[in-house]
Amino acid sequence: MSKAYSMDLRERVVKAVTQEGMSRRQAAVRFGVGPSTAIRWIERFEETGSVSPDQIGGHKPRTIRDDHADWLRQRCREKPFTLRGLVAELASERGLKVDYRSVWRFVHDEKLSHKKRR
Hints:
By secondary structure, the protein is mainly alpha-helical. The protein folds into two domains: 42 residues; 43 residues. It has six helices and no strands. The longest helix is centred in the middle third of the chain and has 14 residues. The chain starts with 6 loop residues before the first helix and ends in a 9-residue tail after the last helix.
């Protein structure tokens, strides 16, 4: 994952535009950043009064939770299933769009999977 530009650089770009009268594109060339980056920094400064970056990364809550999780637990205990089948059932019956990996992680974490034995 990329790292945010330093606050010093952000402040110098904003200062060049707001106090020295440079255009946003000229400031971008002068400080070696992309024009769209300089434009966004100036917009952020005008809106919030700060050039500090937003949070990068963080926790993303799982899609399968609450009522959907309860339904999926019950469904897995009722009859045999395939993960792709569960993805399709969640989409058609519950209106929840999830991918194969999300369903696999949920089933694995809940220890709902079983091996077929002959």
